[in-house]
Amino acid sequence: MIRAAFNRLIGMLTVMILVVTIVFVIVRVTPGDPAAVMLGPEATAQDIEDLRARLGLDGSLVEQFGSYVAGIAKGDLGQSIFLGQSVGTALWQRAEPTFFLTLFSLLIAMVIALPVGIASAYWRGSLFDQTMTTVAMLAASVPSFWLGLLLIQSFAVSLGWFPTSGYGGPGTTLLERLHYLVLPAVTLGVVSSALIMRFTRASMLDVLNDDYVRTARSKGMSEWRVVLKHALKNALIPILTVVGLTAALLISGAIVTETVFGLPGVGNLIVSAVLRRDYPVIQGALLIVAGLYVLVNFLIDMLYLLVDPRVRY
Amino acid sequence: MRPSTFAFLVGAAVLGLTPAASAQEKGGVIDVATIGEPPTLDAMVSSTDIVGMISQHIFETLFTFDADWNLTPLLAASLPTISDDARTYTIELRENIAFHDGSAMTSSDVVASLKRWLEVAARGKQVAANVEAIEAVDARTVKITLKEPYSPLLSLLAFNNSAAIVIPEETIPDGAATPLATFVGTGPYMLKEHKPDQYIQLVRFDDYVMRDEDPSGFGGARHAYLDEIRFVPVPDINTRTEGAIAGQFDFVDTLPVESYDRLTTEKSEPVLLEHFGWPIFVMNTKEGVLSDMRVRQALQAALSTSDMLAAAFGDTKFYAVDGPMYPANYAWRTEAGVELYNQANLDKAKELLAAAGYDGKPLRILTSRQYEFHYKMALVAQAYLEQAGFKVDMQVVDWATLVQRNKKPELWEIFITHSPFLPEPALNFILSKSAGGWWDTPEKEKALTAFTSTSVPEERKAHWEELQKLIFEQAPIVKVGDFASLSAKSPALEGFRPSPWPAFWNVSLNEKQ
């Protein structure tokens, strides 16, 4: 286990070095310029040059990369060009809505997907299974911005139960802020549930016909005990994989959902940073997101070892 | 909204009235949904409208514009005394003006602020080379000395973006190079908290000293009735619309014209600012096929601006097919040269192209879907231009790429932008030879110099007529027409005056609504 963890850590470090380099290069070769965005279409070329110098963007790429890497080594992700704060602070401020959004949407997805997936597998081919499979296909195909707007129109505009967008003003309590997360969490939860449900169903189908399940039944064990204890435990690995990857995707910013609902989360930060070419924020956010992704994968790998002792790396 | 209410709002905008001002009471917090997070709160650095809209509550300038777009004093006690040779402006400052940090405004703050403005602001740089000196005569008097007479100076000093704001000398960072770290002004509201992408919280500045005159446009008394103004970025235009209809916001900026009918509810009413601004096709006069004036004239002859406007805005309620560079309610309005507007004359365009020896080199139209109406107009223009014999290469890029590429003359022939109608023609980039399409001809420079050298209103109007005629004759741009801006407000919001840069002083909440 320790050896497997060490091997995985070496791989993670290599991935992070590649991420730092590739993101820096891609961001710099992409057309667009933060100084031009700040000054607008009517500025002169000289205005842009002057502002670039003031923002410290006039150095060579090698110099800029050097100071970026030196900053990372000291734990400094740099200073946002537009936000008037450090990248670390900007990310920290946005961690709360993204964390809770991820948590709630994942919970909603699992509450929907696991029972439905298990039931669909158990009653394979039934009307229930066919209906749920169709619904899952539809949910997977629905664009989240469309579903989001539909929920806004129904529950925020028509019924007035929830705010249309935002994350609360000054002085709002955590409970009030969480109220702003209900509609986005439902949007993401419904969309994510489709994939988890399909994996749960497929994984359960694989194990329900195995010998040990038959043996358990022949020993007179109750059906629920057979399904939930013996079958589900062995079906968990692929389910864990997809839940983990969904979680990583959500942490990295449910970009469209956060934009539609005006949530000041990590996804929204990345979108606005890309649109205005806030280089330090793009670099810092993608570095953290990639780090989280790699970390989640690492944790899933370690969970495999715990769930199934036969797994070796 | 009832038609009568709507007519009143539009009428108020034109006449500069402030409805129900006498019945307004202090108190309340409003949420204002904006199109996004402003790139900065440093009003000197940016010329974007969203920065002007928010920062004008915090910072003030020496002068501003009244409801008829005439210059009027703000931090200055009165309009300046101008020397006979029109080179020296002596500006007396108002007494007892306090900054948000409690310090008193003096002439040394004004001098330091104006010097920074000359160095960092695009509008400041426009005049910087012509400034001989800025000095404090005494604690309440500032003197600006120019090398040559330049009549747009006061308009540049009065404008609210790329603005000559007055800030405490000690908050100005060492040299102009460093961005502002604190945002301390003299305005009726002060910055309390800024959570990027979440809100900008402004609270009433209790020591604000108002002017004595009645409110008029951006001038006169600025009553801070509201306790707080919160600017909330809502970048998605559909979510902004739903937020307006749900009544989540008290004011919602820039909405799609298609949502107009949906905005009339118990909780919201549409605010239409007619003749808000004008879409512009800027032509590259420096390099490429459009550096030949005959090709530009051919392009101008080919376009049907009425079709372009119809495609972009749909209903005539939201646009006007109007050639002059200023709408009817501006003193600068003139019909000079407008016979060349909206020609849609393909035969004339073909003749001009043949005479110019156009060789079929692609015309690169640089546009973006950041503003959907830009793209729609570009599509219609493409159809007309191809019929006239142009080969068109449509380059649709994101806004950040567009604003970078449009500074490089080798990369485009036309770029599409838009502007509100600015109170003074010299504020507009199209007259600059170093911005936009680099329009630089002897005729234009002669007319522009004459226009900026005289302070006599009648002479300035005559020179502007000459300039507008040249804009049509030499075609450095194509003005597509006028368009309206649609916003929404809560019926409880009183005293609101529609403007290209909505302001919330003199605005109150009627809780009975």
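qc> The mean pLDDT of chain B is 91.
qc> done
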